[in-house]
Amino acid sequence: MRIGLLTDGGYPYANGESRLWCDRLVRGLPQHEFDLFALSRSADQEQQGWVRLPDQVGRVRTAPLWTREEDARNSGCPRGLPGRLATGLGRSYGRRDRRRFTAHVSALVGAVCAGTETAPASDGAGSEAASGLFADGLYGLAELARERGGLRNALRSEATARIVESACRAPGTGRTVHGATVPDHLAFVAALERALRPLSLDWYAEDDLGAVDLCHAASGGAAALPGLLAKRFFGVPLLVTEHGVPLRAHYLAAPEAPLGAPVRALLANFHGLLASETYRQAALITPGNTHVRRWQERFGADRGKLRTVYPGMEADRFGGVGEGEDGGGPDTLVWIGRVEPAKDLIALLHAFAEVRRAEPDARLRIFGAPVRGSEGDTYLAHCRALAAQLFPDEATDAHAVGDNPVTFEEIGGPEVPDLAEAYASGGVVVLSSVVEGFPISLVEAMFCGRATVSTDVGAVVEVVGGTGLVVPPRNPRALADACVALLRDPERRARLGAAARARALELFTVEQNLMAFGGIYLDLVGQAPARWTTPTDPLDPAGPPRPFATPPEAHVLGALTTGPVAVGTPARGPAGASARASAGASAGVPARVSNGTSRVPSWAVGAEGMCAGVRGAGDGDA
After folding, report:
1. What's the average pLDDT block by block, 10 residues per block, for the chain (622 residues)?
2. Is 174 helix (H, G, I), strand (E, B) or coil?
3. Fewest CB atoms within 10 Å of the CB: 11, 37, 469, 546?
4. Residue 470 forms beta bridges with which residues?
5. What is the dihedral of CA 207, 570, 524, 30, to 10 degrees?
6. Does an H or E element contain 184, and which?
7. Distance between CA atoms of 513 and 504, rounded to whole angstroms?
8. Is the CB of residue 459 less than 8 Å from the CB of residue 290?
């Protein structure tokens, strides 16, 4: 079948989020054809290029969400209120279109301003009314954009700002929203236009999203918007996968953003309503863990649509350590991750001070690098200074060089060449986070057969099960007691490590992830109404239903037999097939079939022969 994979700041970009998971999914299901619809978040991300794409990727469409705000102000659009209500094509809306635009924006903004500041599911009938208004406004704007052009200039117009101002001052709005000022209104208008930019894309045609059998959004938020419109316009079923919670990430980042409280409240309402609509329209929702599932249920997801599918991870790279007899340093604690405040290394260092009092020979090895930006470097420097203060360099005698029991190291050096060696260097792996989603480092430690001590945040308890010790976050005393208990009991460490590896191999491998999604794809397409017909006469559109967009013959080497083609389906010859001749593939030359057609996916060679993975390959539609 043909899958439309929707991403936001992710695959196929080389530095995208969920890049590894998406790549494993596409490569692990070669029986399906994938079309990628990717939104990029920055110019730097596009300059990094794409990863090397497999042959079963038939087409890649990209669109930026990072266009600078000043481009809209300097676009040369006509002056005056009617002129400001212009499409992205430079044509002014007519009177009827202006009325449509005003009505749809008023409905959407009114729902956002009237929404609660916590969650849509918490307000009963009022929440249902707000959700209905939001959906009417969202799909109305999408239809207007599809018929008349882009909404960019119209959404940034003075009329939109006035609508936002009136909605904020309407009776029934929250105190925070009611206190919004004119700069707050303008800031929200700019953020709203950016969030709704996917509505103006040219992806909504019969030969684009209308030609896929299933839309699979790799996250919620902006990535799911094209899927919502594909279902609205063409009836394409939508599958939503969330390994994290975009809404939660928005809440955590909000206090640090240079925006006022009213703007943050409005954006929280908008993203909450968008999440609620996404969950309502999705045919199936696959959270990556129970922690994400609870957030989805809070924002209106039907429990009958939820199916937890753990993200698959490669276990082979840790097999040598996990199956080996070496239990690691018996007195060594290991921490691995990104150095940032959410990981709470400060609490870990204070806990290790308690461990040293009970076990003087204990050591702590911290493997990681600071997150990008000044905040990560500052936090790492603070951790180093605290470690030097708590643990002065120790020497065995007056002539020996002092040694600190806490070391800050990076993976890739001569002593620790790879990640598996880092886990192998210790007997106990520690996680001290105060904020965590799916704890990847814990799963890796479990693959390595290591006992773990971790804080009760995110999906930690769900991942660890009964194979490790879990303590409350921000509690150095409890963290120290758990570490000491494992350091003093090597048999218990071995039992927990063996049980952890068995649990990880059962639940968190790539194979179980691919098996789950392969079955989900077949179930969803098998239950979806047939959208394609095969006419007996090319001039007669009537014919029996046909559920798949791509004929089976497209995946067979050789020329296609002439015959009827599905109505509304683009002509798909062997160029869209996923097979190549082995000799041609090994030589890097496109394979040829009997009719002379080149079997190169549309993304592989552009107008100038640019291949995916080369810098600049992601700068537009392919």
Report:
1. 92 84 94 94 85 91 73 41 41 82 95 67 66 94 88 88 94 87 93 93 92 94 95 95 78 64 89 94 95 90 95 90 79 94 95 96 91 83 93 62 82 81 94 92 95 95 95 97 96 96 95 96 84 51 52 50 44 39 40 41 45 39 40
2. coil
3. 546
4. 454
5. -110
6. helix 182-195
7. 12
8. yes
For residue 467, count other CB atoms closer than 10 A to its CB: 20
Q: How far is CA 317 from the centre of its chain?
A: 24
* Rounded-to-integer distance, Cα 569 and Cα 211, Å: 6
How many Cα atoms occupy the beta-carbon half-sphere of 236 within 13 Å?
A: 33
pTM of the predicted model over 0.90 = no
One-letter amino acid of 533: T
Say which residues have a Cβ less than 8 Å from residue 546's Cβ, sequence separation at least 6: 530, 532, 533, 534, 566
The Cα 12–Cα 32 span in angstroms is 17
Neighbouring residues of 68: CB distance < 8 A, sequence distance ≥ 6: none
**Which pLDDT score, from 0 to 100, does residue 587 have?**
40
Q: Which residues contact 466 (CB under 8 A, 6 or more apart)?
A: 499
Q: Please state whether the peptide bond connecting residue 12 to the residue before it is cis, i.e. omega within 30 degrees of 0.
A: yes
Tell me if 92 sits within 8 A of 82, measured CB to CB: yes
**572: β partners:** none
Q: Which of 142, 155, 189, 137 is nearest to 87 (CA)?
A: 155
Backbone φ and ψ of 40, nearest 5°? -100, 150
Tracing tokens 């990094």 back to the chain, one arrives at 48
Look at residue 126 in the predicted model and tell me its pLDDT. 62
Phi, psi of 206 (to 5 degrees): -60, -30
* Interatomic CA distance for residues 357 and 353, integer angstroms: 7
d(CA 382, CA 209): 50
